[in-house]
Specification:
The chain is mainly alpha-helical. It has 5 helices and no strands. The radius of gyration is 18 Å and the shape is globular.
Length: 131
């Protein structure tokens, strides 16, 4: 599997699934809220758990996914970064956002136009650049 494919898969997995310990924490919280007869919290937690199951099964974005890719790269000591490494990371992110698919988030325009949001959004989710 190439670096591009690994990054693409990581983007899809990060945007469409929780870790098992996070799901377990939601399920534990649901039991607590049910015992307290807290209808609003029970409803919200049930929605979050259901959203997780649907997103994981269908590889759709989770509701709480911001759509903004944050990439952390650890490089060991005395390691060299190969030519094209960061380009491959960016390509993998773009392909992952296309595959997920994310919602359009990237604002069009120059710095001022983006702040004003006067030019609208790009239709392609891969226009969102990593933070």
């Amino acid at each position: 599997m190439t670096l591009i494919e690994k990054v693409q898969d990581a983007v899809v997995n990060a945007g469409s699934s929780y870790s098992e310990d996070r799901l377990a924490a939601y399920e534990k919280a649901l039991k607590v809220e049910e015992s307290l007869d807290n209808e609003n919290a029970v409803w919200a937690l049930e929605q979050m758990i259901e959203n997780f199951k649907v997103a994981k099964e269908k590889k759709l974005p989770l509701c709480d996914d911001t759509g903004i890719p944050h990439v952390l790269i650890q490089v060991g000591e005395n390691r060299e970064i190969p030519k094209g490494f960061f380009n491959d990371i960016n390509i993998g992110i773009a392909k992952g956002l296309d595959k997920l698919p994310g919602r359009p988030m990237a604002v069009k325009g120059n710095d001022i136009e983006r702040i004003e949001q006067s030019q609208g959004l790009y239709n392609e989710s891969n226009m969102m650049k990593p933070a």
